Amino acid sequence: MKTEIISSGFGGQGALTVGKFIAKAAMAEGMHVSWLPAYGPEMRGGTANVSAIVSETAIASPIVSSPDILVALNQPSIDKFGADVKEGGLMIINSDMCPDGTTRTDIEIIEAPMNLIAKEMGSDKVLNMIAIGMIIGRKNLIKFETIEADLTAFLAKKNPALLEANIKAIKKGIELGKK
Amino acid sequence: MGEKVLMKGNEAVAEAAIRAGCRLYFAYPITPQSELIEYMARMMPKVDGTFLQASSEVAAINMVYGAAGCGRRVMTSSSSPGISLKMEGISYLAGANLPSVIVNVQRGGPGLGDIQPAQGDYFQATKGGGHGDYRLIVLAPSSVQEFADSASDAFDLADKYRIPVMILADGLLGQMMEPVEFKPAKTEAELAELDKQHLDWAMYQNKPEPNHHHHEINSLEIDPHELEKHVLKLDQKYKLIQKNEVKHEEYNVNEDNEILCVAFGTASRIVKSAIDQLKKEGHNVGLVRPITVWPYPSEAVLNAVSKNVKKVVVFELNLGQMVEDVRLAVNGKVPVDFMGKVGGLVFTPEEVKTKIEENL
What we know:
The structure holds 2 protein chains of 2 kinds. Chain A contains 6 helices and 6 strands, in the order βαβββαββαααα. By secondary structure, chain A is an alpha/beta fold. Chain A has one domain: Pyruvate-ferredoxin Oxidoreductase, domain 3 (3-Layer(aba) Sandwich). A 6-stranded mixed sheet of chain A has the order 2-3-1-4-5-6, sandwiched between helices. Chain B has 2 domains: 192 residues, Thiamin diphosphate (ThDP)-binding fold, Pyr/PP domains (Rossmann fold, 3-Layer(aba) Sandwich), CATH 3.40.50; 111 residues, Rossmann fold, CATH 3.40.50. Chain B is globular, with a radius of gyration of 21 Å.
């Protein structure tokens, strides 16, 4: 079993971090993982994106050309990667920043106004955590508890308020992700 | 071994180098290896080591020369254009028999090129680059774990043969995060032992007479007969390395292979994906991956050309630099074909698969 993910958005939206937290959690759960960011000129203005792979067996190529899951935090991400999502795959769309959406009808779609929801959760910064929650809610990929433990270790002392907002955002995402 | 951590290749190789006893690091920043120099800047002070951002790559490599001359574990790193600048110093290190480790996180060239992954420095790393008859041991890792492990291997080899060792990575390996498990850090006692191995030649503070030693670190030998002796001695060392230190990996190599692929570093990972896919479709394709690209695993490549292999196909992120070594190894036994990708682009498993299928 191998799941290939592309997570993409404007710089600052936390697209790369989506991939990182998923990879870290999957690693903690004993899976093989890789995390490969696009670096260089395309970071400016367009899309900051990352290829993440979670696999039961060793990962050969770390490059994702047809993702099982696309996290699109902005419209350019759909324009760039939307057509590459595998048939029957999953596209997560931040409707606040994706006015045109997608024309794909052969894939699962979870759409939500993530900017708005993040604000409600207490911080603009937790937008990407909603996307992680959606993946947890829809796919049998990683466990909520693993990410919760990782976030707690990282934030409990440093910023308890942000930790709470993160956890709330993930839980909201899980709710939205469930069919 | 400790627990697994998720880390970028650039950071993993820096951490592993410190654990292997590297306490001196001199470099000048360049993308896509910036995280390496940044990690060293953060961590060296914590182990009482020296981090110094030199005024240029040329200055950095000459600082490496000085530190290596004192018998200490020293490292520098850069990316392609910066490595070109270091070439004079690398030739001097080789000429003066100085152990040292140089990391090249390759990017697209020639010239300033771009900052995306490439393997265009194969010729420079394995055939010279600097002037004169010299060799480097060149390690070509293909995962973050191997990139990290190559640091201690490189230092051990450098000390064993008194030779500069290059770790030939690329932007993809540097930027990618994968799980990595580190070897335990060397203890103070182990570090003291490391220093002792170079006492017979390295520069250190003179003891009062009669224990005075005259040590000289030099690559200049103005008498041609003396220089001839020196170069022939270097050659003996290189022959010994070719005999003892060749490393490679075989992937799905067997007696029923129809095609044999050869690829190193990042390119080899893409080829493995293509081989897995072809296997599902009933085709038997093998891969030899050189881990040392100098000394080159010529025998392993030749031995892997089993009776049913119709062709050897070489895949590289350049215009075919290693293909020459593969042709020498295969020595006309079967045809050798090549597919490359340049500009900092990486071929997809599908492209590699199509190329193999053309030859089936």
